[in-house]
Amino acid sequence: MDSARNPYTPNAGASPEIVVGRGEQTKAFRTLLGRLGAGRTHQSMVMVGLRGVGKTVLLNEFRDIAHQENWEVIEHEASKHDDSRFRQTMATLLRGALLRLSPRARWTDRGHRAASVITAFSVSMDQQGTWSLGWDVEPSEGLGDHGELGMDLSDALVAVGEAAQERQRGVAILIDEVQFLSARQLEALIQAIHKTVQRKLPITFVGAGLPQIAELAGDAKSYAERLFQFPTVDSLSPEDARTAITDPAAAESVQYDDDAVDLAVEITRGYPYFIQELGYQVWEIAEQNPISRDDVEQAREAYEAKLDSSFFRVRLDRATPLQSAYMRAMAELGPEPQKADAVARVLGRESSQVGPTRAELIDMGLLYTPEHGYAAFTVPDFDKYMLRAVPELLVPPIQKRKKRT
Ligand SMILES: Nc1ncnc2c1ncn2[C@@H]1O[C@H](COP(=O)(O)OP(=O)(O)O)[C@@H](O)[C@H]1O
Ligand SMILES: [Mg+2]
Asked: Cα(18) to centroid of ligand 1, in Å?
C-alpha cells in the first residue's frame, strides 16, 4: 500500500487514528470534571499499566475532553528531580494556567492572591535566589511559604482553584510517568488535592504511570485511597483489538480478510503498541486489497525486527552489564513476576549482593514490584526479548560499587 497513507501510529504517545476500548476511562474523567465543576467532590484517578498500553494517549484524550469542557489544562511529564526543581516546574505550570484563566490586567483580588501564592511557592526553597519565576509578583506571606512541600503546594492549588472557580472554570493537572515523582512529591500532590477536595474547588490531578505498588506511608496513604482510584490500563479485548487493526485501514478504504485479523490479534495479543507496529508493517508489505492472512504472516518478521530494534532495545541500551545480567536471569525464569532470591540464585549470588541492581532497575522504570519481594518487567514480552538479545547469561565479576547518589 501507499506508505504516505499508512494510517498506523507505532510511536510512544502518538494518538491512534481511533482510540479503541477506553470508553470507561474517558467517561470517568468526564464525570470527574462535571462533578467538580458543579461544586461536588469526586475521586480522581491515577492510571497504571505497562509500557505501550496507551496511558499517554489516554492522558491526551483527557486534555482534549478538558478543553471541550472549558477547563484549563496543565500537562507535565514527571522526571526524577529534587524538590526545588519540582517546585519550579509546578510553579511555572501554575503560573501559565493562571494567566490563561485571565490575563493579568483583568486579575481580581483572587487572581492577584493566586499569583502571589505561586511566587511564594516557587521561591521558598530556593535559598540561592538564583531562580526566578519571571514575573514581578511579590510573594505572599503566610501562604505557600512554609518551606514544607505538601503545605505549600496545598496553598498554591487552593489559590489557583479559587481563581478558577471565580471564573467558572476549572484546572486539570495531568501528570504522566508519575512513578518518577519522589514519594514526597507524590504525597505533596495528594495532600494538596485533599485540601482542594475539602474546599470543593474545581481543580484536580490525574496521573498515569507504571504499576508500582503505592509506596506511600501513613496519612498520605489513607488520603490516597480515599481520593483516588487506580484503574489499570491493559491490553485490548479481542474485539477491541480487531477494531484497532481494521478501522484505521478502513478509513483509507482498505479491508482485511477475517483470518488475517485473527492472526494479527494472535500475534499482538491486543497490546496497543504491538497492534500499531504490526499494522504499520502489514500496510507496507501488502499489495492487494483486501489484506490477506499471508500478508500478515509475511509482515511478521519485519514487525519483530522493528520491535527489537526500537521498543525493546532502547530499554536494554540503558542498562549496565550487571543490570542486563539481572534482567537476563529474570527472563530465564519466565514471564511471571519473579522473587528476588530466585533471581539471585540464577545469578549465583546472594540476594543482598544483587539487591542494589534490582533497586536501580526499578528506579529506571525497567522493573516494577507487583507485590512485596517480587519484580516484573514493565514492558510486555520483555522476557522473550532478553532471551533473544542475550543468548547466554554472563554474570560480570563482583566489583566494589560506587556510592549511589
Ligand atoms: N486505545 C488505543 N487503540 C489503539 N492504539 C492505541 C491505543 N492507545 C494507544 N495506542 C497506540 O499504542 C502505542 C503506545 O501508546 P502510549 O500512550 O505511548 O502508551 P504508554 O504511555 O502506556 O506507554 C502508540 O503507538 C499508540 O498509537
Ligand atoms: Mg507513556
From this structure: 10
